[in-house]
Each structure stands twice: as C-alpha cells, then as structure tokens.
Amino acid sequence: MKKSLLALAAMGAFAGAAHAQSSVTVYGIADVGFNNTTTDNTTIAGVKTSVNVNSTGKYSNYTSSRVGLRGVEDLGKGLKAAFNIEYGAVADNSVAATGTTITSGTDNAAPLTLRQFNVGLMGGFGSLTIGRQTPLVEVAWSAGDVGGSNNFIGRAYTFNPTVVTTGSEYSATKQNNSRSDRLIIYATPNMSGFAAAVAYGQGENQAYTTNNKETELGANASYTAGPAQVVFGYSSIKRTLNGADLNDGDLTQMVLGANYDFRVAKVFVTASQGSNKTLARLEKNKRSIYELGVSVPVGALVFNASAMTGDYTPVENATKGNVVGMQFGALYNLSKRTMAYGVYGQDKVSGLGTTNVYEAVERKNFGIGVRHTF
C-alpha cells in the first residue's frame, strides 16, 4: 500500500514537473558593414545642395543588430506562457554629442535600445500578448518586402525624405510605429490558413501642467497556403497634449503585402497608403506607394531587386509629387547563419512645386557588410 502511494506521489510530481517545463532561447544578430548615402535637394529655383554621409558599424547595415531572450513555459491543459525581451545594439561607441568624433580608444558603453519587452499566454484560443512589441501592420510590410525590411533606401518601407527648406518639416516616412509600448495584441489561431489579430494600446504622461496621451489601434488579416502569403495591415495612432490635437498627431497607415514562391524565384508585391494631420486637421504627409520585387536564388547566392512608384503630398491642397525608387541586392550565404551582402538603392520625390518645399529630393546609397545570426 505504502509503495503504491509512493509511486502515485512520484508520478504526480513528475506530471507537475512536465507541465511546468520551460525553455529559454538566447538569439541575436550581429551585422557590421560600410554604408554611404548621398542626398540631393533641389529648390523650385533650381538651386541644388548635396549631403554625403559615410558610416561604418552604425544603424544603416542590412539588418539592425540585436540580442534577445525568448522563453516558453508549459502551464498544462494546452496553455503556455511566453515572454520576449530584446535589445538593439549599435557597433559604435557614439556617446558624445552630435557633431563630435569618438576615438576608437575610448571604451564607452555601446548604446542599447529596447526593441521588445512583452509577456503573453497561448492556447487553443490563440494568443494574448502585453507589452512593448511590433505593431500588426508591420507583418504586412514584411510580407510584401523583398528586402526583408532591410535598412537600405529604395523601397516603400524606407522611403522617408524630408522635403522642406524653411518652416515646418514634411517627412514622407511610413505613418506607423516600428514598435510600440503598452500594446495588447490578441491573435486568433490559424484556421485553414486564415488568421487575424487586433491590437490596442494607450499611454499617458501627466506632469504638473502637461498631459501627453497616445492611443493606438491596429489590426491585420492574413492567408497562407503553400507558396502563397497575403497580409493586410492597418494602424491608427492618435496623439494629444492637454486634450488638444498635435501637429502630425493623427496617423493612419494601411498596407497590403503579398508574396508567392515559384521555387526558381519569389515574387513580392506591396500596396501602401498613409498620412497624418496638422493642427488645423488638414491631411499631411500623404503617400501612396506601390512596389514589386523579386528574389532569385542561385545556389548560395541570392539576387534581390525591387521597384516602386507612387505619389506624395506634403500637405492638403499642395502640389502632389511623384515617387520612384529601386533597390538591388546580392546576398551570399557563407553558412546557415552567416551572410555577406552588397546593396544599392535610390529613391526620388519630384514635382512638388510648393513654396518653401524642395521641388525634388533624390537619395542614393550603397553598402557592403557581413551579418551573423545566432
């Protein structure tokens, strides 16, 4: 009898331990390379100015470097808990003020930026995640981007020239956060290839006479079947100060991204539209961009190419500018984890023709480097 009780107790302890098992994974990307970017600005009067930036080991490599921890715990009965903590790292000890030069002999701590910090529950119901995480519209960007959301210009995702000479700045950047704090995301389980998710986030900072508030809504819907993937994403952000509207404080972004793998080549398509609003509630920084890309593997070598077209309007009732861009990349897989790359990209917005706004802004950049994932 005693042996039976001991055996049952041991089995119960083992079962409890099995339910409580957890796994933690350390992962990251180390990406260092050389990058050169030239920006040419042309006024309505035809005056042209140029800015050239060379950088090594900073932000504009193929992929932003990072290190993270990801863990899952089995809670039993089909329920799991998960967490993700991730920091971005810059291979540069730039701790000094803007415009100064840091010598390589100064051992300052490399800057770290928080990318992800969230916890969640997963089960038959889907998943519920809370914390700093990637907005849902970013999934649609990734689905249609042959460049894998790399940092080089020439694509809709990285199209962000500043087009003003004096007065308020107008920037053609995408109108959604790359990552957001305090998001709550619910994602459905995969249902025969269909999946959907919704997000809500609200942050508020009250300090004596100021009250900054931001509310974010997001959603996406996707279908994946064999070689095909289609994702639609939506993001809406509302920012106020003391209950009043802010300039650029009402942002909306919609993206339809898709890809299809033909084995000999993979084709990518993106259709995107975004804008925000001025204090006077005029539509600002409106952009509609369409992009087509193709990726062709040749053994360990992969060739990527993309082209985009569209339009951009700095502010409502202003002249609409034309947008064009392209990017070419050659990626060589030295192993499953290490890749050498060379990328060239360029984009241009022209025909704006509004007082104090550049008539044209053209950017070109190229870079080479090595990326290692772990």
Q: What class would the helix/strand composition place it in? A: mainly beta
Number of helices: 2
Would you give the CATH topology? Porin
Main pleated-sheet profile: 16 strands, antiparallel, barrel
Q: Calculate the terminal CA-CA distance, rounded to whole Å.
A: 52 Å
Note down, in words, how this protein is organized.
7% of the residues lie in helices and 60% in strands. It has 374 residues and is mostly beta strands. The protein has one domain (25-94, 109-373): Porin (Beta Barrel). It has a 16-stranded antiparallel beta barrel with strand order 1-3-4-5-6-7-8-9-10-11-12-13-14-15-16-17. It starts with a helix and ends with a strand. Residues 1-19 and 95-104 have low confidence and may be disordered.
Question: How are the secondary structure elements laid out?
Answer:
Elements: H1 2-19, E1 22-42, E2 48-56, E3 66-76, E4 79-89, E5 112-123, E6 126-133, H2 137-143, E7 180-187, E8 194-207, E9 210-225, E10 228-241, E11 244-261, E12 266-277, E13 283-298, E14 301-315, E15 321-333, E16 338-350, E17 360-373
Keywords:
globular; 2 helices; 374 residues; Porin; mainly beta; 16-stranded antiparallel β-barrel
